[in-house]
Amino acid sequence: MGFDALEIRRDFPILFRQVHGKPLVYFDNAATTQKPKSLIAALGSFYENHNGNIHRGAHTLSDEATTLVEEARQKTADFINAPKPETIIFTRNATEAINLVTHSWGRKFLRPGDEIILTELEHHSNLVPWQILAKEKSVKLRFIPIGADGDLDLVEARKLFSEKTKLVSFTAASNVLGTLPPVEEIISLAKKNGAKTLVDASQWTPHFKTDVRAWDPDFLVFSAHKMLGPTGLGVLYGRESLLEEMDPFLGGGDMIETVELETFTPNVLPAKFEAGTPAIAEAAVFPEALKYLSKIGFSAIDEQEQTLLKRALEILKNEPEVDIYGSLLPQNRGGVISFNLKGLHPHDVGTALDLEGVAVRTGHHCCQPLMRRLGVGGTVRASFYFYNTIDEVEVFGRALRKTIAFFKPKLKTAGAK
Ligand SMILES: Cc1ncc(COP(=O)(O)O)c(C=O)c1O
C-alpha cells in the first residue's frame, strides 16, 4: 500500500461516526465523497474572515474573496493541466456544465440532421440535456453500445461516425459498472471525423490524473463534491477558441460587459459563463481538496482502490446468490461494483446493509437506459475511495452474508434466473 489508510482516516471526522450502533462503512463514494478536516476548516475560515461578494466591491473583503476564487480557478486549471485559468468555468455541478454546453454550443452550432454520439453507459446528466437539444434542433442521437463485460464496443462505435457527426459526449468512467472507456482512442476517432468531444470526467477526476492537454478534448466536466470538495461547485473546461465563439448560458450580473435597455454585450472569459453570484465559499476552499489529493497522489489512490476492489470482487464472486455486472477483472475497472442478490430488490439489500453500518447506493444510479440494457430495474452499488480499508471490505462481506442468510428463502442461486 502506498500510504497508511488508518492515518489518513483521521483527517475525515465523519468516518468515525456510528450508524445503527455500528461503525460507519462508507461505500457510496461515487455519489459523493467525504471531506477532510482541512476543507471543513477552510470553509469556516472563509466565512469567519473573508466573506464578501466577488468582482464587485471596492473593499477588502470583496478583494480577498475575489482573489481566493481566482486563485482557485488557477489551481483547478493546474490540476487538470489546462492551458489557462480562463478555460475553467465554475458551474454548480457537472450536470450544469453539460447543460451549459448543450445551450451555448449546441443551440448555436447544430443544424437539423446533425448527429451526436453518446454511449449506453451515460448518466442522465449526459443524456437528458442532449435529448432536450435533439428535440429542439432535430438532431439525431446515436449510441455506442456496450458488450457483455460493460466495455464500449469500439467496432460498433466506428460505424456510427459520418460527416453528420458533430459531437461525441461520453463518460471517462462509468458510475455503475466502473468501466473505463479508452478516452484517447474515442477522442482521436472523433477528431478524424471532424467531431467535437465532451468528456464527462465526474467519476474520473477523483481517482486518476487528468491531463486535458494530453487528451485534448473540446470540453471536460466534473463536480467538486465527488473529489473531497464541497457541494455546489462544478467545473467546465473548454477549448478557449470554442468558449470564445459560444453564446452566454445564463443572463444576469457579471456575465456582461455593458447593458442597454434592449441589448447587452457579453463579458470576456470566464465571466461570460458565470452569471450571478457564484459558489464563492465553495470555490475558495476547493484548492484544499486538490491539495489533499495531490499530497496522496493518484498512483497511491489507484493502488488502494485496486486492493479494495480485488477483495470485494473475491467476496462477491464467492456467493452463488450474487449477480455482478461489468468486468470481473479488477484491473479493467474503476472502484465501483454493481451487483444484485438474485430475486431480491436492491433496496432490501441496501437497507439490510445499512443496518450493519454499511452505506451503499441502490436503484438505477441515474442510468435508467443502462439498467434496461442490463435487464434489471436497479442494482446495489458499492463504490470505494482511498480512505476505505480492507477491514471495511470484510465488514461489508460479513454484512452481505448475513443479508443472504436472512433472505435465504427468497433467494435464487447461481444458474437460476
Ligand atoms: C458519470 C456521472 N456523470 C455526471 C454526474 C452528475 O454529477 P452532479 O450530480 O454532481 O452534477 C454523475 C453523478 O453521479 C456521474 O456519476
CATH arch. level architecture of the largest domain: 3-Layer(aba) Sandwich
CATH class of the largest domain: Alpha Beta
Strands across the major sheet, in which order?
Answer: 4-10-9-8-7-5-6
**How many structural domains?**
2
Low-confidence stretches: none
Radius of gyration: 22 Å
Query: What fraction of residues sit in β-strands?
Result: 15-25%
Structural class by SSE content: alpha/beta
Structural features, described:
The chain is an alpha/beta fold and 417 residues long. The protein has 2 domains: 5-29 and 297-410, Aspartate Aminotransferase, domain 1 (Alpha-Beta Complex), CATH 3.90.1150; 51-294, Aspartate Aminotransferase, domain 2, CATH 3.40.640. The chain is built from 14 helices and 17 strands. The protein has helices at 5-9, 37-50, 60-79, 94-109, 128-137, 154-160, 183-192, 212-215, 240-245, 280-296, 298-317, 346-355, 368-374, 390-407, and strands spanning 18-19, 22-23, 25-26, 88-91, 115-119, 140-144, 165-171, 196-200, 219-223, 234-238, 256-259, 264-266, 322-325, 336-341, 358-359, 361-363, 379-383. The strands form 5 sheets. Strands 4-10-9-8-7-5-6 form a 7-stranded mixed sheet, sandwiched between helices. Strands 13-14-17-16 form a 4-stranded antiparallel sheet, covered by helices on one side. A two-stranded antiparallel ribbon has the order 1-2. It is globular. The two termini are 39 Å apart. The model has no long low-confidence stretch (mean pLDDT 96). The site of pyridoxal-5'-phosphate has 14 residues, from helix 4.
